[in-house]
Amino acid sequence: MPQPSAAAAPVRSYRDLRVWQQAMDLAEATYRATEQFPEEERYSARLGFASGRVSEPGAREGLGVRG
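User: That's the sequence. What structure does it adopt?
Assistant: Structure tokens below.
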């Protein structure tokens, strides 16, 4: 994992957060991996994964963003 630079860009959106970007990379990798699962397993795996996104608005609220 790259180390943060001394002159990091200002955070204007939750999408600027490196942790959010890495989470999205993980989400995409998970969806690619589950495409090869049997249909009934794919559904339950993705459903469980999708429920983890409930916390995403909390990250936005930490930046003072609403809605």
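The CA atoms of residues 37 and 64 lie 39 Å apart.
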